[in-house]
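The records we work with from here on pair a chain with its fold. These numbers are not coordinates but entries in a learned vocabulary of local backbone shapes. To see the layout at work, look at the sequence and tokens printed below.
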Amino acid sequence: MYRPYELYIGLRYTHTKRRTHFISFISLISMLGIALGVTALITVLSVMNGFERELRDRILGMASHASITTFSGQLSDWQGLSALLAGREKIIASAPYVSGETMLSNGKRVTGGILRGIMPDMEGGVSDVVTHIKQGDINLLRPGEYGIVLGSEMAVALGVATGDSVTVVSPQITIGPTGLLPRLRRFTVVGIFEVGMYEYDRGVALVHIEDAARLFQMDDKVTGLRLKLSDIFLAPEVSRELSRELQGDYRIEDWTRQHANFFRAVKTEKRVMFIILTLIVAVAAFNIVSTLIMVVTDKRSDIAILRTLGASPRSIMSIFIIQGVFIGVLGTALGVAGGVALALNVETIVPAIEQLFNVQFLAADVYYISDVPSELHWNDVWVMAGVAIVLSLLATLYPAWRAARTHPAEALRYE
């Protein structure tokens, strides 16, 4: 008796009665439609977040969080710069590198690629390539022995395995008795890595930094320093700080610049997918319109009696808004519960389905990512829930407005 009568009547109209089984069925369908749409929205966006995380991790398995180079392409006294950065809280590790474009050949097989000189004992601090060695050992890269570690796709293209030799041709030239000659060196394959990104598995080869510097005639200089940060999303901030503090011919880049187009495309795809799936929720939400219009038609005499008892048009409108919002909120709650449960268990459910029906959605011999990853972001969940509830509220306005315009005399004329 102490509740507002609008709330009491609005909630009571959601109960099934003998005459209104069909209306209650439509209400149930609307509720389930909203729940299904929200569930699909949460699950799909969580899977897309998972794929984005996998791709980001694989890219950063070879690329650095940030790098310091010079506009001339040669950095001297990298040891002093590394010591200067070592005390910073946001920078976990740094490692020098020498990089250049080369041509690699084995007999009649020729391919181009990036030759990267590294220090094996420091490379593990800035990249994950050490953990992705399929054959051999990266520690076999020793100065003067001219060992090389190839990406798996590059090794296939050249037709080599560990123990074989490849010829590396540098773009620099030397002057010999017969004229200008390209610089080339024979390397022995001591390892093969696979990080799961075709760009790197097909186009990158690793050698010891001293061998690379000797090949590219860089003496004791390096191309730059690669940095690993405590948080990859701090990369733009750290880059700006270093740009302000470091004086000289320094060029500072981070992974968000190096792969800006790729991650911008992923974000655009997620945004478009959000809009498409929101339309599913909108269709379900606007089923509430037909439900409430039928309720208003069925309850015309009840509305007229309430008006004669002194209920204002605003109160009548509130009754049907409460009913529609109740359907939307309950459907959204069911959808959030189902979507969160599904998103948190996708990596278990998908393999079970594959095993049950003897199928494989992402074949390992075709796709680098053969599992379906998922990463739930609670901010996305709250946004989706809010959108669903707002759409449900908008769907109630027209039927509630029509109910408020009901004239008691006309409604009771034939009662």
In short: The first strand starts at residue 66 and ends at 70. The chain has two domains: 5-57+262-412, 64-258. Strands lie at 66-70, 91-106, 109-118, 133-136, 147-151, 165-176, 179-193, 204-208, 224-229, 250-254. DSSP finds 14 helices and ten strands in the chain.
